[in-house]
Specification:
Elements lengths: L9 E5 L2 H11 L3 E8 L4 E8 L2 E8 L18 E5 L2 H10 L8 E2 L6 E6 L5 E6 L1
Parallel strand pairs: 1-4, 5-8
Antiparallel strand pairs: 2-3, 3-4, 6-7, 7-8
Length: about 130
């Protein structure tokens, strides 16, 4: 069996690089650790860290196709982030104009969680530790 150690990074393509960079850094608290413009692709690549750990590669590409909107479509369903207090995190997002779904209880774990979206509609989850 392949001996995977951990997830190295998650790659996200944004329709508006600056807007998504501001969302992930200013709203969610990621740190921009590197940023590169790739002229041959007319594309930006930003390296984002969470609590010092490299986590997300944020890309831009000219005219990327829209994301499939059905939540049960094949492919990435959502990204989940652990928080200490889902209600407090929702309140902070709401203060910044970001709408969260009503908090629900995961029927398998009994943990509290909610969903919201990034600027391109990528579903994100907050999961209480």
């Amino acid at each position: 069996m392949l001996q995977l150690k951990q997830v190295h990074h998650i790659a996200i393509i944004a329709s508006d690089y600056a807007r998504s960079k501001a969302f992930y850094c200013d709203v969610l608290g990621f740190t921009l650790t590197g940023e590169h413009y790739r002229e041959a692709r007319d594309s930006w690549k930003g390296d984002l860290a969470l609590n010092g750990q490299y986590t997300i590669e944020l890309f831009s590409f000219p005219s990327p196709p829209a994301r499939v909107t059905q939540p049960e479509a094949c492919g990435l369903r959502h990204l989940a982030f652990t928080v200490e207090d889902v209600d407090a995190a929702c309140a902070q997002l709401t203060e910044k104009g970001i709408c969260c779904e009503p908090v629900r209880i995961d029927p398998l774990t009994g943990k509290r969680c909610t969903f919201f979206a990034d600027p391109d509609g990528l579903p994100l989850e907050l999961y209480q530790a």
